[in-house]
Hints:
Helix content is 41%, strand content 19%.
Amino acid sequence: MEKRWTLKPSNSLVVQHLQEVLHIHPVICRLLAQRGISTFDEAKQFFRSSEEHIHDPFLMKDMSAAISRIHQAIQNEEKILIYGDYDVDGTTAVALVYQFFKKLTKHIAFYIPHRFGEGYGVSQKGIDFAIEENFGLIITLDCGIKSAKLIGLAKEHGIDTIICDHHIPDDSLPEAHAILNPKQADCTYPFKELCGCGIGYKLICAYASEYGIETTYTTELLDLLATAIAADIVPMNGENRTLCVLGLKKANENPSIPLKALRKIAVLEKPFTINDLVFVIAPRVNAAGRMDDARKAVELFLEEDEEKAKEIATILQEDNNDRKDIDRSITEEALKLAEEHTEAHATVLYQPHWHKGVVGIVASRLIDHHYRPTIVLTASNGKLTGSARSVKGFNLYDGLSACSEYLENYGGHYFAAGLTLAEDNLLSFTQQFNDVVRDTLPEEMRLPEIEIDADLQFNEITDAFLHILHQFSPHGPDNMKPVFRSTGVMNYQHYSKILKEKHIRFVMYQAGSKTMNGIGFNLAHKFNLVEEGSEFEILYHIEENEWQGKTNIQLKILDLR
Length: 561
């Protein structure tokens, strides 16, 4: 489908000021301004992340109470249960916190709910386990803020809970001993966008600081944290950016045994990049919970023997291969069903046999084909359950809240959520959700958008420009890889051609410029714009392409017109 091109705004006065103090290309200054950077010191912090930019963990509400209660449990030899979600953020958080406290007490265990038998977050089965096994303290990670009833049940049985969660709290909070969540209205912690593993990391840092634990106990876990930050798609700015930079450095200079095993099984030979963590490591870790039992992922992250780590990584690789096969099959089936509802404002699909572990992925793929809020449901434990994904302009959590009378449970974010409902409510829910989307998603937002950071001439793509551009990495939300626009582009001597009937290999130039190579995936249907010889304009990322030992600049073309 056609896409909207939108040029991002930037404050011209800020751009001018940055040019004056930094003496760098105005386009680089524009990129910085768009990312909320307006001074020399802010730019220095952005480009030179270091430990000094990490906030004091005691600025987080309830931190002192949390570590004091943990210390009491360790001193009294109480049993501590580390409880986390089954995705990358949850499993890395559990492994990180468990590893740290395992060195201080032997009375510790971890619990990951089973996606199919228990569902997301704190479960009845999990609390029953804690009660039966006489745990005195539960530490939840990446979950718990919505589990008031079950945490209340634990309290009735004499179990205290410390919640480490980053999801939006309700007005009424669980009766926990301590709640670590910067999104609480009265929490003054300066950075609000930590992932669940990030909050777990702040917890162990606070404990180490208060009780004189060596800093190596925490810094050796930074590669786990970087994996969580990358995989959970949290904003890549502020403290997240600093922690991710430090974690990537650790992953490349002194990787943990589990990361080395995952690197080997994925045949990654170059240094880790943020893309490797998002698109190579994270799917293999997530596959454990999607296809079977996420405990395997935690066991891998805790493994200290290289051969055993390799064995578990191989199992995760097999799970991921199975996931891809099932994902492909269900996506094909779902696309056919979606074609029957082309006039709908939202896509809501249900089939009882669809695999619960991949419905979120399928929902995302459907949006690539039919750009509208999408919900994919399957049968589980006598109910319909599934995942929802949204588009820019429609707050999914608010949309589900408007239909809550038909839902038994739901939770999530602006762009992603999970939900459960009775089958009898499916038709009514679908109609109301469709109406909510119709009434709230602006008409102009119903085409996919490509946001343009800046206009650029080919002759401006110099070594000095690229040297600074590379330093914008690692990329993620609020610091996405810059998109550039070039106009007045022409096919160079008809060298551009179609590859594999789907893609375009570009050789192009602007008047008076050097030639540039580019690749445009799935753009062959627009080749006539290139071939006819007239000028066209392109949107692209700037990349380095390595071939036969040589590195060349290549433009990754996102769209043209």
